[in-house]
Amino acid sequence: MKNLYQVLGVLRRATPQEVKAAYRANAREAHPDRGGQADRFAEIQAAYDTLGDERQRAEWEARFAAWTAERSATPCGQCFTPLRTRKGGRNTCPVCGFSVVTPPPSRLDRLRDDLIDKSADFLIHVGDRVGQEIAVTARPSASALEWGRVRRRGGEASGACVCCAKPRGAARRGGSVASCG
Questions:
Q1: 149, 177 in Cβ contact below 8 A?
Q2: pTM for the complete prediction?
Q3: How far apart are CA 77 and CA 27, in angstroms?
Q4: Would you list the domain boundaries of the chain?
Q5: pLDDT tens across 90-142, in order?
Q6: How far apart are CA 104 and CA 50, in angstroms?
Q7: d(Cα 178, Cα 162) in Å, to the nearest integer?
Q8: Whether the Cβ atoms of residue 113 and residue 99 lie closer than 8 Å to each other
Q9: What is the distance between the alpha carbons of residues 108 and 113, in angstroms, rounded to a whole number?
């Protein structure tokens, strides 16, 4: 989402007259008849249409604030640049130098984050255990290993063990192919 204040080059606290003056200056430079680019001119026009009307400006600010919150950012109070901030920390906007203070995380936020972390750890642990059980129960039988070796060799029953690649004599126990696990 575009920051319309940056498109026009004004601060958030700009008056309607300052927004209009910035629009005229930028439009003059970006106008296609004066050698500017049409897409840049359209961007400036759309920004002015939104910021020039107080109702649309308030709606856009609310949408932009929600958009930045979804991305774990905070809009700067002066130029509305989205900033990645530490919870409960003081940050400085790189564009305008404004000091942005974010509130510390609430108890509910800390509990939610802790629950997410513990749930992820639990799922990883359960997934490992289930994967190990599947590996143990899905081990091929001796006759299946022999059949795989015969098929791979084109009917010849010699070669290495399918499971561990040991020579055939090393994988035999009592005259049959043994599973090596």
A1: yes
A2: 0.52
A3: 26
A4: 4-80, 142-177
A5: 778 878 888 777 777 778 878 888 888 888 888 887 777 766 666 666 555 55
A6: 33
A7: 10
A8: no
A9: 9
Indicate the Cα dihedral angle 108, 109, 111, 115, nearest 10°: 130
Residues ≥6 apart with Cβ < 8 Å to 82: 3, 68, 71, 73, 74, 75, 76
Mean of the per-residue pLDDT values for the chain? 76
Each residue's pLDDT tens digit, 151-172: 555 444 445 555 555 555 554 4
Tell me, which fold does domain 4-80 have in CATH? Helix Hairpins (1.10.287)
Whether the Cβ atoms of residue 40 and residue 119 lie closer than 8 Å to each other: no
Q: What percent of the chain has pLDDT over 90?
A: 25
Reported as type and span, the H/E element at residue 135 is helix 107-137
Token representation of residue 125: 């642990």
